[in-house]
Specification:
Structural class: mainly alpha
Number of helices: 14
Organism: Mesobacillus zeae
Number of domains: 1
Helix content: over 70%
Number of strands: 3
Family: Belongs to the SEDS family. FtsW subfamily.
Distance between the termini: 41 Å
Largest sheet: 3 strands, antiparallel
Strand order of the largest sheet: 1-2-3
InterPro entries: Cell_cycle_FtsW-rel_CS, FtsW/RodA
Function: Peptidoglycan polymerase that is essential for cell division.
Order of helices and strands: HHHHEEEHHHHHHHHHH
EC number: 2.4.99.28
Strand content: under 5%
């Protein structure tokens, strides 16, 4: 039985995730060595060593999630503590949180920092998937089917937005929207919910106008249209990202040879790591990242479509959408397709909370895939065993006649 289970795991997903994380580790060292010394007065390998530890811990978490049966997460015994911990963590930010990047997003635990909003993404996926899977018969009823997921999604988005971290709030809202679209909710109800969402966003923008329309955030939108109009101020980040991407060309300048990471690019090992990859490794480095992330997203969607269990299907689609949406926002911001939001690139950017949450999500995705593959193989074997006795009986009957 154990051999059958081990054979049922999707090792292609595991290999791609490991390769992407190791590639990110190399690029973090290359991108952060100057920043660590100049800006923080740390050793040149400071962020590399920390990310190496993050990968080891994330690997352990991934293994636990890959072994733990995902169907157990649908129970109230799992969901209730998860909801309490996530909401408690987000509320604790306003008492014990630490400001970083103009947002109250971090809680210090000893020498480490945790970002609760990262884990809130996965909690939304699990909670919404479980509720919709349990209440398929009442999925179009507001009181029984739609109210619980709407309340939880809205509360999480609000708590993250008022930190203020609008980039993460947008990602969580988009993830929730994807699960709603995939759950089987009536289209007319979805249109009504969308109109209601627009009204809520308008009200929030009025109530929190000082935070939303702060000078820093307005600069991100003005510099988005033409970063070179104010290259030394509001357009500084994006302009230097353009320089890095343009300098790389097809082959790149070579690993470790980036010029923009020498104090020009802000946060080269987190938000703008793709710019350093483009400058040093050219189209080949960027292509590897894009193909790897695309494979994980498309494979996850395929698993979701293949899974017959509604809970597992929504989990796979939600996790895939999370990785895809976050990748698009990071890559789009660094390349000027959309305004900058300060979102890390999955598996590649530096960050313990992000990598830990992504590894946990990937463990769940691999677990769903294992169940799908195992059930298919087990079903085929049962059918073969059922055919064999029937043939033996008919043969013996004919022989007796």
């Amino acid at each position: 039985m154990l051999k059958k289970i081990l054979r049922s795991y999707d090792y292609s997903l595991i290999i791609v995730m490991v390769l992407l994380s190791l590639f990110g580790l190399i690029m973090i060292y290359s991108a952060s060595m100057v920043t660590a010394v100049q800006r923080y007065d740390y050793p040149s390998d400071f962020f590399y060593q920390k990310q190496k530890l993050h990968i080891l811990v994330a690997g352990f978490v991934f293994c636990i999630a890959a072994i733990f049966p995902y169907k157990a997460m649908k129970s109230t015994k799992f969901l209730l503590p998860m909801v309490i911990i996530i909401i408690g963590g987000l509320l604790a930010l306003f008492l014990f949180g630490k400001v970083a990047g103009n947002a109250l997003s971090w809680i210090e635990v000893g020498t480490r920092s945790i970002q609760p909003s990262e884990f809130a993404k996965l909690s939304v996926i699990i909670y919404l998937s479980a509720i919709f899977a349990k209440r398929q018969a009442h999925i179009n009823e507001f009181d029984k089917g739609l109210t619980p997921p709407l309340v939880y999604l809205g509360l999480i988005c609000l708590l993250v937005a008022i930190q203020p971290d609008f980039g993460t709030a947008i990602i969580i809202g988009a993830i929730g929207g994807t699960i709603f679209l995939s759950s089987g909710v009536n289209r007319k109800i979805l249109l009504l919910l969308f109109c209601g969402l627009l009204v809520v966003l308008l009200m929030v923008s009025i109530v929190f106008k000082d935070e939303i329309y702060s000078e820093t955030r307005q600069d991100r939108f003005t510099s988005y249209s033409d970063p070179f109009a104010d290259e030394k101020d509001s357009g500084y980040h994006l302009a230097n990202s353009y320089y890095a991407i343009g300098s790389g060309g097809i082959k790149g300048l070579g690993l470790g040879q980036s010029v923009q990471k020498l104090g020009y690019l802000p946060e080269p090992h987190t938000d703008f790591i793709i710019s350093v990859i483009s400058e040093e490794l050219g189209i080949f480095g960027v292509g590897f990242v894009l193909l790897s992330l695309s494979y994980i997203v498309l494979k996850g969607i395929y698993i979701g479509l293949k899974c017959r269990d509604p809970f597992g299907s929504l989990l796979a689609i939600g996790i895939s959408s999370m990785i895809g949406i976050q990748s698009f926002i990071n890559l789009g911001g660094a390349s000027g397709v959309i305004p900058l939001t300060g979102v890390p690139l999955p598996f590649v950017s530096y960050g313990g909370s992000s990598l830990l949450q992504l590894s946990l999500a990937m463990g769940i995705l691999v677990n769903v895939s294992m169940f799908v593959n195992f059930e298919e193989k087990y079903k085929d074997k049962i059918q073969q065993q059922q055919r064999k006795p029937s043939k033996q009986v008919s043969f013996q009957s004919g022989r007796g006649l």
